[in-house]
Known about the structure:
- Helices cover 44% and strands 19% of the residues.
- The protein contains eleven helices and seven strands.
- Strands 1, 2, 3, 4, 5, 6 and 7 form a seven-stranded mixed β-sheet that branches.
- Helix 2 (28-39) runs antiparallel to helix 9.
- It is globular and about 50 Å long.
Amino acid sequence: MLKRSCLCLLMLCCAQVSAAEELSWQSPAFIQQAFIAVALRNEYQAGAKPLRRWRQDVRVWLDHRVPDQTLHQALVEDHLRHLAAITGHPIHRVNNKADANVQLVFTRQETWAREAQELMGSEVDAALHGAVCLAGFDVNAGEIIRARVIIPVDQARMHGRLVACIVEELTQIMGLPNDSEAAYPSIFNDKSPEQILSPLDVVLLRLLYQPQLRPGMQEPEVRRVTEKILNRWREDGTIASAVGEARSGELYQRLAP
């Protein structure tokens, strides 16, 4: 069976936007375009891709190669619980590498390039320059079957992006691998200030794991299905309720002033 890999990374960037731009995320047409850009595109591969997501449970093993294990574990578990609540998909941490299909490595800057190559192959070389952290997943006929995340903790902290790395990379390996200016405000936009899930991100994640969408589905069918879902969600308040759902996450509560 053919397996394809996808890389996701967090870069450093910032921008100013208007209040009108910040509110436009609630439009079904805007959400659909953001979904297409984030779910059906790759950062380093041109052209449309099929829909990718997990069928099996997501089982995450934390590979600690630096101190602060307790903190890192707490941050990861907070986010995994939020992802599971939003998507309705089983996601949990495991204690053994053999039981995992996701390996999350906490390491240091001086070794992360070599370790990233060991985890993901030489294809990561082009992605490492300017990246703060990195993730990749393997796909079989649209089904995500394995993922790896690597975070050089000292580098991430130096840029104030440790939480952002945990949130973005673990979220992207759910099947939203691309960064795009079509999504705002969002962790999938390098120009957005978001470090935790925005209301738009909540909608994108929930949309990805709707039963009407299937791994391997092509863009024309994805557009037809998502248009119906999003129009219904606008009417029944699902889109508007994403504001509260974004703020209900344990990371939001942990980081709130």
